[in-house]
Amino acid sequence: MNRILTTIRKSKEMNILLVLIVISIIISIFNGSFLTMGNLLDVVKSNIVLAIMSMGMLLVLLTGGIDVSIASVISAVTVVVGQFMVHVSSNIVLVFIVGVLAGSLMGLINGLLIAKLKIPPIVATLGTMSIIFGVVLYLTNGTWITGIPQNFIDFGRVTIGKFNVAGSDQPTGIPIQFLFLVLAAALTWFILKYTVIGRGIYAIGGNKESAERIGINSDNLTLFVYVYEGFLIGLAGVVHTSIMRQVDPNAFIGFELQVIAAVVLGGASVLGGYGSVFGTLVGVSLFCVINNGLILMHIPVYWQKIVVGVVLITSISVDVIQKRMQEKKNVRVDIDENIQRFARTSVSKEVKTQA
Amino acid sequence: MAQNMLLEMHHVSKTFPGVKALQDIQLEIQHGEIHALIGENGAGKSTLIKILSGVYQPDEGAEIFIDGELQKDITPLGSLKHGIAVIYQDFSLFPNLTVAENIAMVSRIGRKTKIINWKETHNIAKNALAKLELELPLGTTLSELSVAKQQLVAIARAFVNDVKLIVMDEPTSALSRGEVESLFSIIRNLKERGISILFISHKLDELFAISDRFTILRDGKYIGTFGEEELDDDRLISLMVGRRIEYKIFDKRTLNDPLFEVHNLNKAGNFKDISFTLNRGEILGITGLVGAGRSELAQAIFGLSPSDTGEILLDGEPLHIESPEQSVAHGISYIPENRLTEGLVLKKSMTDNICLTVLNKISNNRGLIGKEAQHELVDTWIHDLNIKPNLPNMIASKLSGGNQQRIVLSKWLATEPKILIVDEPTNGIDIGAKADIHQLLRDLSEQGMSIIVISSELPEILAIADRVLVMRRGRIAATLDGKNLTQEEIMKEAL
Question: Are A81 and A237 in contact (CB under 8 A)?
């Protein structure tokens, strides 16, 4: 049984890829416009922010933690970035620096609460979520920030390559924002696969006590994870603003569940230790394709919420049940099966000297 | 001799808040020696290992020499660097990582370069396994390996650094006999190459089969170090046991009025072939080492995790218990470890505490609590258990320790059990309060209640149990008469 489970676990990412392909085929049978370049580019563009944030969430889940404050953090980042551009400077580099600094700072607060004060991640991030959303609403009164400088809007419209798309007169290309997703995914992949920090994150997710016993500093790694996540959210916030060209402080309410669902769908375990960048990207794609399919098939939007909930509960149930089965299998008492006893050292010594 | 010592620990003490876990311990290990560390539950073995591995810092005044060099502030990493590798009972590995990475992980800690070279990782793992003349699938995820192979991974990990001493905590507890034999041949091989082993186990035959010398601890104190040829089972046991705590020894009764019978109870991975009888008004002690299956047995009888096969008779009638509710309905009550001492709501009154378990009994048909029923119940228990002072509204925290325990006990007794199972009833409380609980249990048994007392503390078992079941590794090793029983007789069966 365990063997089957581990095989499934091992090829979980491949299975999800298979599901992605099957669902894509089904949707395109129902609606011919799904598999057009125009639609796919739209899907990509509208989910870049989700995908970037999912990289950060992957690290958090790997440590066995969770972060429900991410929607409030990205809201705050977009407000900070929007105000900065309107009132201070719209220098693209500066805007990015301000965005990632704001995100990292909020990640640092979460990290300190979780790693140093040892507050359970769900509680700490629920608290910061409420505080950050509150501050954002206090500062903005919930009103949109408009009047984003033209140079930033132009930057957001840059595309790579030019090709014709069916149903549109204008040639289009891959949006510049996609580059930031590639960057975030590549960086996360490199950290997880090729750095001591990344392997340490897997180690503390697999067995925190073992990790500490061999001298891995789990507090510092946890702190790193939340700061890095904040950094990516900062990046995502700027990217989001460049796509939307205005700031809506309420745009992200409920977004944390979508990110968590997409990452979990990609094979990451909420219990920590399992998950990969590749799997997460496939999970995010699957999640987006399902959402897009629902829209194309004219299924009411509230079904999206139901899908998110079902995805979350199903994936987490599988993890929990697997873990429980493994624990059940563990022998609690070493039962004495053989009465035969071992011969004494001195006896074997005597035998040796006689020989 | 002195220059041949790999490790010397002198005057090692460790105080935790309220407890002296270790007092002036010494331990000397020679090069190429297999050294056994032995002691009862709670003798201080784990604490000593944790000091050696740098997890705990000893109290002021400890001297630890490695290769004759005085060590200060041993850290987990420093301990590894000095060639001391601890293989914990749970192996301390990472189930989600590959064999190669599990082995090589220690080599990455504290290094300058922070980038992983996967080729090097594989080579480190390969070399470590080669030193042990072992082969394991390097790319396989650890959780797919058998327990015995996982242990080999844990041993191989010690060989990434230049290891001089391998500490093995209960290394054979999850292995089959064949696997133990191959582990022993590996250990002997290491010894030939001058590597020392500190071996911790409760299995005397295994200890005598592999060890050159023994260091014995008892109650956090150093008893002595002996050569293998100086000891036999009896001598070793008498050195291990012998706590001086004296309790009032109650007269032991011989009863023959079976109330509760257990026949051939089995539960895979928990216990095997368990049969015993509990008489009316008897106190039956169940003892054994931690991990012998005592609590698992109690939980099975109570229905918390029912047994696989076997028969239970109550008053001669077959009993099928699958949940705690059923056993409570049949008059069986189970008080888990620490409940007698921690089960009190300190800021509530005596009345509130006593009524907690029987709210449905004292509430009326609208689900509200009936004041009269409540008073009646509380008065009964204050009278029956002789709780003083007779003030039902007194806040529980203001009562003396003994009376507090009476209140907790009455809470459980309010369900009117015929059979009471108590697991470690006096763990962590002072001697006076312990004696109070012993008296209370004895009084209840004299009123006709049958009681099963599970305890690791041999003097406690000797004080109150009319008969004693000794469990060893999931089986009943012996049923002993409580009259004139000694700690040595029990320990001999428990090991």
Answer: yes
pLDDT at A355: 39
Per-residue burial over B38-52, b if 16 or more Cβ lie within 10 Å, else e, is bbbebbbbbbbbbbb
Strand partners, B162: none
Q: How many CB atoms lie within 10 A of CB A110?
A: 30
| CB of A156 closer than 8 Å to CB of A243 | yes
Kindly state whether residue B257 falls inside one of the protein's structural domains. Answer: yes
What residues of B are in contact with residue A221 (Cβ under 8 Å)? none
Would you say the ipTM is above 0.90? no
What is the number of CB-based contacts under 8 A between chain A and chain B?
133
Domain of B285, in residue numbers: 247-331+417-495
- Tokens for B264, please give them: 């051939």
Show which of B240, B257, B291 is a domain's final residue. B240
CB contact at 8 A, A155 and A99: no
* Residue/partner pairs of A91-96 with CB below 8 Å, 24 or more apart: A92/A151, A92/A152, A92/A155, A95/A152, A95/A238, A96/A235, A96/A238
Cα(A161)–Cα(A175) distance, integer angstroms? 9
Identify each DSSP E strand in A99-215 by its residue range: 159-163, 172-175
Q: Is residue B178 part of a domain?
A: yes
Q: What angle do CA B398, B403, B407 make, to 5 degrees?
A: 100
Nearest CA-CA distance, residue B108 and chain A, Å: 7
Q: Give the domain ranges of chain A.
A: 44-325
Q: Give mean pLDDT, residues A248-259.
A: 92
Residue type, A95: V
The torsion defined by the Cα of A104, A110, A115 and A116, in degrees rounded to 10, comes to 100
Report the amino acid identity of residue A25. I
Minimum Cα–Cα distance from A341: chain B residue: B205
Span A151-178, average pLDDT: 81
In a domain, B154, yes or no: yes
Residue A177's SS3 state is helix
The contact set of A with B (CB < 8 A) is 2-3, 6, 10, 193-199, 202-203, 205-207, 209-216, 273-274, 326, 330-338, 340-346, 348
Do A114 and A48 touch, CB atoms closer than 8 A? no
**Cα-to-chain-centroid distance, residue B393:** 39
Asked whether the beta carbons of B351 and B378 are under 8 A apart, the reply is yes
Q: Tens of pLDDT along A189-241?
A: 999 999 999 999 999 999 998 898 888 899 999 999 999 999 999 999 999 99
Domain co-membership, B307 together with B324: yes
CA closest to B180 among chain A residues: A342
What sign for the dihedral angle of Cα B386, B387, B390, B393?
A: negative
Q: Compute CA A348 distance to the chain's CA centroid, rounded to the nearest angstrom.
A: 60
Residue B444 falls inside a structural domain = yes
Q: Distance (Å, rounded) from C-alpha A166 to C-alpha A289?
A: 20
Clarify whether residues B69 and B159 are in a common domain: yes
Contacts of A344 in chain B (CB under 8 A): 208-209, 228
